[in-house]
Design goal:
The structure holds two protein chains of two kinds.
Chain A (H helix, E strand, L loop, with lengths): L7 H18 L1 H26 L2 E4 L3 E4 L3 H7 L2 H34 L5 H9 L6 H12 L5 H8 L13 H26 L3 H9 L4 H12 L1 H16 L3 H6 L12 H10 L4 H28 L5
Antiparallel strand pairs in A: 1-2
Helix pairs in contact in A: 3-14, 4-8, 4-11, 5-8, 6-8, 11-14, 13-14
Chain B lengths: L33 H28 L4 H6 L11 H10 L6 H32 L5 H10 L6 H13 L6 H5 L6 H14 L2 H9 L4 H12 L1 H17 L2 H6 L8 H12 L8 H22 L7 H8 L1
Helix pairs in contact in B: 1-14, 3-14, 4-8, 4-11, 8-11, 9-10, 13-14
Classes of the chains: A mainly alpha, B mainly alpha.
Chain lengths: 308, 314
């Protein structure tokens, strides 16, 4: 079949489209550098991790393929689940408490309710500049058994000697350290989200006679809900990988066991017991649990129509 | 309802001076009582106390001798005041490697990691925001999915891969992973999408500019606030990172500050080691947080927090 006559404008249009495609393909060149590093230093190790978790290295016989045996070992390992349970408890306390505190202060700063709000905001942000290692060293030294400054204050007041590193308090101490480290940053994230709520919305609510508390709970917080969800997820992912704080405290606090958290357990399996394959399986299981929880949380929020 | 009937309270309930002037809506319109404002300010004061206690403690303690750290009142100075000799000791003690070297290493890792992360994510963000090539969405989704992957999942394998290619305990082994920041790619995409007009790019193309030239001369200058924010975020997270260097590097010469401090801190807690380590470790910790605090203050006016989650509330 003969093709219909081509008008000059059609030729121009076709050329335009071809040109557009060629130019668009060039966008890939901007993305490529990041993606290459991403592949080499993140995706490859991840794949290697999954791969190696299917093998077992034995003293005699070398490395052999053992299928899911590392996983059945990890999933059936009481030591893993004890640490996992403790980490869940930690996350279940630390994340909500911190997000509530941060939301409270972010709202206050956004509405300009406190005196000297700007100064407070700057001070609260300071711990973000302090590495977790230093934060733990500071709090650990202050709470140290028998000699720490807080213990001495207790004793000087005639109160019983508080054993902050005892089995009942240790997790609480770590919760306090984590809250100290991350609240300021969380406040900034939520504050900036609150600041982007359109002024007209609040003004019309005031005109309609809405009270302060109603403006906060019915207008501002629902609008920044995606930001709150993101903050919860980011913090939960961090909390479930708990490592630096308990690891650093372990010489001071004998209650930090080799399986205190899954990450501590994985570290000890990899670098003290040299069972890299088993450590890889622990890491994969932990990652899987974290991804599952984040995804479930995201989906449950999406169903409520909260996510954009 | 008209403005005239809005619930404006009697003047005595108004907060007096500058309170609320920074808020978008004048506080008077909320009709809050002064007592509420005082309570809220008190809450801020208490949290300030909580925030500053460790910082004050470390500042005071770094001026004390090792015996005085725990034998005198922790929140006030004691005699003798040995801040300068402690600081000198920090920079001259070489028992487990040198603090100065850790400081230099960390500056290199955080600097290169921060610059690398900023350049890579600015390019990627611009590419995602202003082009539509095949497979774009798949690429973007796979990068965003990495947000959910815990660092734990690839740290040990990364070390094993490094060992395979004889890259373990080298500088790039530590700073290259710092350059991967999916959050930064997201922020850059949002920011480039909002700040680099398509018309400007098209006009430059008509004038015969190359894509690389357009990016460098037109897009980058428009993205400066985002670039500074992303750079700062990545410098801070690289500077403070402990887990990744701890796993992939075991050469004391290449230690980060956090790695070195961890070793020193453990020393102070293991019986039989030199007691003055307590004072040195405290002074070293104090020095290690100074560079970031200074950076915050210097770059404060560029710090566009609004960029962080602004794009999410739309």
């Amino acid at each position: 079949m003969a093709s219909p006559p081509v008008t000059p404008t059609e030729v121009a249009g076709r050329r335009q489209r071809a040109f557009q495609r060629r130019r668009d393909r060039r966008g890939l060149w901007f993305v490529l550098p990041f993606f290459v590093v991403f592949l080499m230093f993140l995706v490859v190790p991840l794949a290697y991790s999954v791969y190696t978790s299917f093998f077992t290295t034995r003293m005699i016989g070398g490395t052999v393929f053992t299928g899911f045996s590392n996983y059945t070992q990890a999933l059936g390992d009481g030591a893993f689940w004890t640490g996992m349970g403790r980490t869940f408890l930690f996350a279940a306390i630390q994340v909500p408490v911190m997000v509530i505190i941060a939301t409270f202060f972010a709202t206050i700063f956004d509405m300009g309710v406190a005196r000297f709000g700007g100064a407070f905001r700057a001070v609260f942000f300071l711990p973000f500049a302090v590495p977790g290692v230093v934060a733990t060293a500071m709090w650990g030294s202050m709470l140290q058994t028998n000699v720490g400054v807080f213990v001495r204050v207790f004793l000087d007041l005639g109160l019983p000697n508080p054993n902050f590193f005892g089995p009942g308090h240790l997790l609480g101490v770590i919760v306090v350290i984590a809250i100290w480290e991350w609240t300021g940053f969380t406040i900034i994230l939520l504050y900036t989200a609150l600041k982007s709520v359109p002024r007209e919305v609040v003004e019309s609510a005031i005109v309609d006679g809405a009270k302060f508390s109603r403006i906060v709970t019915r207008i501002k917080l629902p609008i920044i809900r995606p930001a709150i969800i993101l903050v919860v997820i980011i913090n939960a992912i961090g909390a479930l990988q708990l490592f630096t704080e308990p690891y650093l405290l372990s010489p001071m606090a004998p209650n930090v066991s080799a399986n205190y958290t899954p990450t501590v357990y994985m570290y000890n399996e990899a670098f003290s017991a040299y069972s890299y394959d088993f450590a890889a399986a622990i890491a994969v299981v932990l990652a899987f649990i974290i991804i599952l929880i984040s995804a479930a949380f995201l989906l449950s929020q999406r169903r409520k129509g909260a996510l954009v | 309802m008209s403005i005239a009937t809005a619930p404006v309270r009697a003047p005595k309930a108004y907060p007096r001076r500058n309170i609320g002037v920074t808020a978008d809506v004048p506080l008077q319109l909320y009709g809050l009582h002064r007592r509420t404002i005082n309570l809220v300010t008190l809450a801020c004061g208490l949290f300030t106390l909580f925030t500053l206690i460790p910082i004050w403690w470390i500042f005071v303690s770094s001026s004390k001798t090792a015996t005085n750290v725990n034998s005198t009142f922790g929140f006030w100075f004691a005699h003798p005041f040995v801040l300068w000799s402690n600081l000198k000791e920090v920079f001259t003690n070489r028992e487990d490697g040198s603090f100065l070297q850790w400081l230099r290493n960390t500056a290199i890792y955080a600097g290169i990691g921060g610059i690398g992360a900023t350049v890579l994510s600015a390019m990627a963000g611009y590419g995602f925001a202003r082009f539509s090539f095949r497979g774009k969405n798949l690429l973007f989704i796979s990068i965003m999915a990495a947000l959910l992957i815990p660092i734990v999942a690839f740290a040990v394998p990364l070390y094993l891969v490094y060992a395979k290619v004889h890259m373990d305990s080298t500088m790039p082994a530590i700073f290259v992973p710092f350059m991967i920041s999916p959050v930064s790619v997201y922020l850059m995409r949002v920011y480039a999408g909002g700040s680099v007009p398509r018309e400007l790019i098209d006009a430059a193309r008509v004038d015969g500019a190359g894509e690389a030239g357009i990016f460098v001369r037109i897009a980058v200058p428009l993205m400066v606030p985002a670039l500074v924010t992303v750079f700062m975020l990545n410098v801070v997270s690289s500077w403070n990172n402990f887990f990744l260097p701890f796993i992939v590097n075991n050469s004391a010469k290449l230690y980060t500050l956090t790695q070195g401090l961890q070793v020193w801190f453990w020393h102070t807690n293991i019986a039989g080691t030199s007691e003055n380590f307590t004072a040195i470790t405290i002074a070293a910790s104090m020095i290690s947080i100074m560079p970031l605090l200074i950076m915050f203050i210097v770059l404060q006016r560029y710090w566009r927090g609004g960029l962080l989650l602004g794009g999410l509330t739309g």
